Amino acid sequence: MKGVLTLAALIAGMVGCGTKEQATSEFTGNQTTYALQQSSQYEVSGTVTFKEKKDGSTLVEVELKGTSGNAKYPVHLHLGDLSVQGASIAAQLNPVLGSTGKSQTSLTQLADETKISYQAITKLDASIKIHLSDSGPEKDIILSAGNIGIAAANGLSSGRLGVGVCESK
Q1: β-strand partners of 97
Q2: Per DSSP, what are the bridge partners of residue 63?
Q3: What share of the chain is helix, strand, coil (3-state, %, to 5)?
Q4: Sequence-ordered list of residues with C-beta below 8 angstroms from that of 67, at least 6 positions apart, any chain
Q5: Are the C-beta atoms of residues 136 and 99 closer than 8 Å to each other?
Q6: Distance separating alpha carbons of residues 49 and 108, to the nearest angstrom
Q7: Which domains does the chain have, with CATH numbers?
Q8: How far is CA 119 from CA 42, 64, 129, 151, in A?
Q9: 115-122: long-range contacts at Cβ-Cβ below 8 A with a sequence spacing of 24 or more?
């Protein structure tokens, strides 16, 4: 009898564990990924992914190959495609860590404090540029870059566009 009670308690405990609620995702399932191409003598390339979150923000994930060490590489969202000289910065994103090649930023507004949604980002005529440094002569060296939104849709089917120098301040 004691064995039957122990078995019943064990079964009841296992059934109880199976009824826990599953964690809900913070994402809507909408996401867009763009290629980031090598843009200088440094062999750095990768992707940028925009993921729509249920709270209205967008998670921007940059993943690069070819980085190392303790460097932090600035990431900018620029208005205009890659070839635009002096393209203004629409948003500064969190830097890519050299040790991991990764960056994550929760984006809700642009540098001018205009609110921006995932849908609006996918319709921007813009580009992402990862710089070698945030100051000095190396700030104008673009390690990796790619068009996003309309600029990506209108890009040359044969591949690479020229990369224009960024606006220096």
Answers
A1: 72, 102
A2: 47, 102
A3: 15, 40, 40
A4: 44, 73, 96, 97, 98, 99, 100, 101, 143
A5: no
A6: 15
A7: 25-153 (2.60.40.200)
A8: 33, 24, 21, 15
A9: 116/58, 116/91, 117/52, 117/56, 117/58, 118/28, 118/30, 118/50, 118/51, 118/52, 118/53, 118/58, 119/52, 121/50, 121/58, 121/148, 121/149, 122/32, 122/50, 122/148, 122/149
Contact 110, 91 (CB under 8 A): yes
Q: pLDDT of 95-151, one tens digit each?
A: 999 999 999 999 999 999 999 999 999 999 999 999 999 899 898 899 999 999 999
For residue 66 the two structure tokens come to 């070819």
DSSP run (H or E) holding 98:
none
Closest to 50 in 3D by CA, of 40, 62, 38, 42 = 62
What distances in angstroms separate CA 10 from CA 21, 59, 106, one per listed residue? 20, 43, 45
40 closest CA partner among 129, 134, 104: 129
Global confidence as pTM: 0.79
**β-strand 102-107 against 72-79: which pairing, if any?**
unpaired
